[in-house]
Task: inverse folding
């Protein structure tokens, strides 16, 4: 501030000096003498130089960022800050959408790369349905929504905010897929539940089975000492108790396997070789009606080979009970992730039951235990992947494993 004041005084002094010399020159004009004219010109050099220097240095001060008022328009924001903000939004892990009102309906447009990937081929089956779902969400609330993708139904958390830009009102929707996280939590809950149930049931069944066997032995020793009808009734009752106890021990033991899966030991696996081993193992059952394919043939993956084989065996075992042909196809999907499709020509899964087929204890078969598909999901998740039941274009069931 002091330097600016000094410059202003310098400008005033220069202007005053020039004005004084101009008056003196006017007074000398009736009788101009060369000496006096030269003297006035020389005297004018000093104030003119001072005036020029002060005017050159007295420039407008460049405002700092903190001096920009809060009501500044977007055009006043520095370009670098705008580019940095756009880069952050573009690479945000949450899908962002803009919702604008036009002709009485909400027009939805993606704002970043995550949103565009969600609408790209290979993800959402019906992007327009997803647009309508987002446009119908209330402002200021978080909702758990579900939408169909080529990998099956996926759940996501959506939140919508209202804002006004350049006088136009619009809404901003943030969509975060949470299917994998929810499945992981559900698996942990089921594993803990199964572990507790099997432990308590086995604690009760083990002495029952042991006592029933002991009672059968004592009854054999007392043979002939009891009336025949009582002996026959006791034999039948104890035999039934022993058989049911042994059957329940075996039944509960099979569920215990859900909570005791070994830690995955990933290693580099050539999928073509893994498929060859599966083909040799399952060929007698399928009689040439099972096909494997890998694109490209050199495709490799870091995974526990034994657990992946077991997951595929379970899927193909289910398929063999309802279909006559099956196909397993491995390829790279968008983003460089491994995708394995297992499909068959059977009747498929009824749409009303599709959401429950991976739930432990749930089965559509009369003698089913509900372990096969639950184990598939457990093994796939243990190796960092996901498994979905997808709608098949034609008839049959179709499962998609993604790693």
Result:
């Amino acid at each position: 501030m002091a330097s600016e004041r000094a410059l202003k005084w310098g400008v005033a002094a220069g202007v005053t000096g020039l004005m004084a010399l101009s008056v003196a020159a006017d007074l000398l004009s009736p009788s101009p003498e060369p000496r006096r004219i030269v003297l006035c010109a020389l005297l004018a050099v000093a104030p003119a130089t001072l005036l020029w220097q002060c005017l050159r240095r007295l420039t407008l001060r460049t405002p700092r960022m903190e001096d920009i008022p809060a009501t500044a328009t977007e055009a006043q924001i520095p370009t670098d800050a705008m580019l940095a903000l756009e880069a952050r939004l573009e690479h945000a892990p949450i899908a962002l959408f803009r919702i604008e009102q036009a002709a009485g309906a909400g027009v939805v447009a993606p704002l970043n790369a995550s949103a565009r990937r969600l609408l790209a081929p290979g993800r959402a089956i019906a992007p327009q349905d997803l647009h309508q779902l987002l446009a119908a969400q209330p402002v200021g609330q978080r909702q758990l929504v579900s939408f169909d993708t080529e990998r099956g139904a996926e759940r996501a958390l959506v939140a919508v905010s209202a804002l006004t830009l350049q006088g136009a009102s619009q809404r901003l929707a943030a969509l975060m897929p949470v299917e994998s996280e929810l499945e992981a939590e559900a698996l942990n809950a089921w594993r803990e539940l199964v572990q507790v149930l099997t432990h308590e049931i086995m604690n009760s069944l083990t002495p029952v089975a042991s006592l029933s066997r002991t009672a059968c032995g004592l009854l054999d020793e007392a043979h002939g000492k009891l009336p025949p009808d009582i002996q026959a009734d006791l034999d039948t009752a104890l035999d039934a108790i022993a058989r049911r106890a042994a059957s329940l021990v075996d039944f509960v033991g099979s569920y215990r396997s859900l909570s005791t899966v070994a830690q995955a030991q990933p290693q580099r696996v050539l999928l073509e070789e893994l498929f060859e081993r599966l083909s040799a193992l399952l060929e007698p059952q399928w009689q040439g009606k099972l096909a494997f394919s890998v694109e490209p043939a050199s495709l490799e993956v870091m995974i526990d080979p034994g657990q992946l084989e077991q997951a595929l065996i379970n899927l193909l075992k289910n398929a063999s009970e309802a279909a006559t042909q099956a196909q397993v196809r491995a390829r790279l999907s968008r983003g460089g992730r491994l995708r394995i499709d297992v499909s068959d020509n059977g009747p498929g899964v009824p749409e009303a039951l599709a959401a429950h087929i991976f739930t432990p204890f749930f089965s559509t078969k009369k003698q089913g235990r509900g372990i096969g598909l639950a184990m598939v999901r457990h093994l796939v998740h243990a190796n960092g992947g996901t498994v979905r039941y997808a709608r098949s274009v034609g008839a049959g069931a179709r499962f998609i494993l993604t790693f």
